[in-house]
Amino acid sequence: MPELTTARRRARGAVAVGVGAVATVMIRRSVQRRGEALGRRARLAGENGNARVAATTTAPQVEQHTTSRWSVFLAYGLLAAATQALFVNYAPVTQDAARHFGVSIGAIGWLSQVFPLVYVLLAVPAGIALDRFLRPALVVGAVLTASGAFLRLVADDFTWAFTGQVVAAAGQPFILNAIPGLAVGYLAEKHRATGIAAASSATFAGMVLGYLLGASLPGESHIHTLTLVTALIAMDAGLCVVAALRLPARTSPESASVTSGLRAFRAAFGNRRVRRLCGVVVIPMGTFIALATFVQPLLAPAGVPESTAGLILALTMIAGVIGCAVVPVWADRRGREVQVMGAAIAFTAGACLHLALVPSTAMAFLTLLGTGFVLLPALPIVLSLSERHAPEAESTAAGLVWMAGNLGGVLLTTAVGLFVSRPAIAFGVLAAATLLALPALRWFRKLEHPDALG
């Protein structure tokens, strides 16, 4: 059981780093396409005399000023870091927390696992809210985060700790999905790439903060102190965001939305390409999460030490970050997004099959590093494609994709968990499941390039 919990802790850190890299690539393209969409709607409004559309479209004004509100992005970065610190709050001190609260180690794991589960439920509502009311929705996220952090202090027991984590987890989708609107509303175009990279980096900087706090406050007697410190961080970060959002924006983030509310959901979910992309991303993202979660116990029978498994996972994430910076750009410039995703799916399935048949330290290094490099970039590619086809509702479309990916992670992780004591079967299940993504990809390609398939 301790080994499984250790693996889950590594998985959460790994996924967070991947999310940061993914977000950087995805949001840059999101901002560019949002500007293009706004410009198109503005021109149509001028040609047709549609005053209502023109009233809600401010793209011509966006670039009239060159000033950027960096204080807003600094405050946002603090809040994003705070959410991730809460995410892993008890991960570095799992055994100490279990003794402190008088529960099992598995129960402590749920204090972190609740974050992706709640995200699945709130991805679409959060995307709709951010498309329509960016600043109020972000404030709601800040309030939920800080409130959840302090709810854990009502009583020093597991029930209130879990309740607080659930409330804080409800604020996460409103925070992590806010970057595109903030970039449009508060940064000049020439500064957006820098701001986006900084904001994305803040998410996994928060993970580092959480682990450092746990390392600096070890022992059962420090659990209450650790909870209090992270609650104060969440409160201060939330107050900074609320204060920063009172500053006038370069253009109203809310008015920059081309489509909002239920119209955004209909525009995103009603798009056949977006729906098929959600079907494509379920399995690859689920495979990655399952591998990251159980890589240590699955490799242990092959004689791979826990420390070595941790090193393999760390290097896999580094390879994934490099891949996210290189592969999507290459694929986009050459129009080979579908082919790259197909190669990533096939490679990952082959890697799982090799680990099922010839498990060893060397094989794990070769296969998992390669998987990180080719598979993680598939997510920003899918997000980029979804926003290309639904530029008027990119936050909602991205929310649908993230929801599908997290749902796949829950399903495949549960399936692999059933065979965690039989690694060959577990890796075989992952290999077979991963191959199922190829028909889904072909299904999307048939819609995207009908001539290519005859």
Considering the chains and any ligands shown, give keywords for the structure.
single chain, globular
Write the layout of secondary structure elements.
Blueprint: H1 2-48, H2 51-55, H3 59-62, H4 70-87, H5 94-101, H6 105-132, H7 134-151, H8 158-176, H9 179-186, H10 189-216, H11 223-244, H12 261-269, H13 272-299, H14 306-334, H15 337-357, H16 361-375, H17 378-389, H18 394-417, H19 423-435, H20 437-448
Helix pairs in contact: 1-6, 1-9, 1-10, 1-13, 1-14, 1-17, 4-8, 4-10, 4-11, 5-6, 6-7, 6-8, 6-12, 6-18, 7-8, 7-11, 9-10, 12-18, 13-14, 13-16, 13-17, 13-18, 13-19, 13-20, 14-16, 15-16, 15-17, 15-19, 15-20, 17-18, 18-19
End-to-end Cα distance: 52 Å
* Count of β-strands: 0
Q: Quick one: biggest sheet?
A: none
Please state the CA-atom Rg, rounded to the nearest Å.
22 Å
Q: Strand content of the residues, in percent?
A: under 5%
Order of helices and strands: HHHHHHHHHHHHHHHHHHHH
* DSSP summary: helix tally: 20
Oligomeric description of these chains: single chain
Determine the mean pLDDT.
Answer: 76
Judged by helices, strands and strand pairing, the structural class is: mainly alpha
Low-confidence stretches: 10-17, 19-31, 34-65, 254-258
User: Share of helix among residues?
Assistant: over 70%
Task: Kindly describe this structure.
With 454 residues, this protein is an all-alpha fold. It is built from 20 helices and no strands. The longest helix has 47 residues. The chain is globular. The N and C termini lie far apart (52 Å). About 13% of the residues have low confidence.
